[in-house]
Amino acid sequence: MKFDILTLFPEVMNDYFKQGLLGRAQRSGLIQVQAHNLRNWTDDKHQTVDDKPYGGGNGMVLKVGPIYRAVKELKGRRRKVKVVLLTPRGRVFDQKLAREYADLRQLIIISGRYEGVDERVAENIADDQVSIGPYVLMSGDLPAMIMVEVIARLQAGVAGKESWLAERQERGGFWECPQYTRPEIFQPNNRTKWSVPKTLVKGDHRAIKKWRQEKGKLIERG
Predict the structure, then answer these.
(1) What pLDDT does 169 receive?
(2) pTM of the model
């Protein structure tokens, strides 16, 4: 799967995507992730990407022209492609939507900044408008990175062996439970001991499974 992100600060993103599992997945050819500088698609010598809003108001608005040209070039004639505009007004990104996007061949993400994005982008260019939560950030850069990581994790081989993920898939969702490792007893000071639950150290797999079901929580559906 290919991820393309339109932003004004691609360096930070591209450096992050080179690290850890995402970096390894790219080097293995499982995914492609590239953040692009929107200024590359401007048509003036100053590489202007924003302007004052019609009707007055505070702040600047990202122009439709550079975004249109960028999406047109990046999209080409590929099939199974979606263009997503990140905006506080969009539908909330969740695991169900991530699974929907994971079936695509390409996802183009438009990261907004300043006061917003020319509404003609939402009306004519973007297929979806998405938000990562009921709050306002300074840009769409962090939401874009979150979306890529969540969706990339669903691609075969990116997050490790399929069996590792399958064993945590229960009841139509992702079952998350408390985890412990050595030492069995940790003493932060002479008066305190933090111990691993006895059930987990006795080796009774049936009891361990029951404990995890009781202590766990379903954190995704779809």
Answers:
(1) 54
(2) 0.87
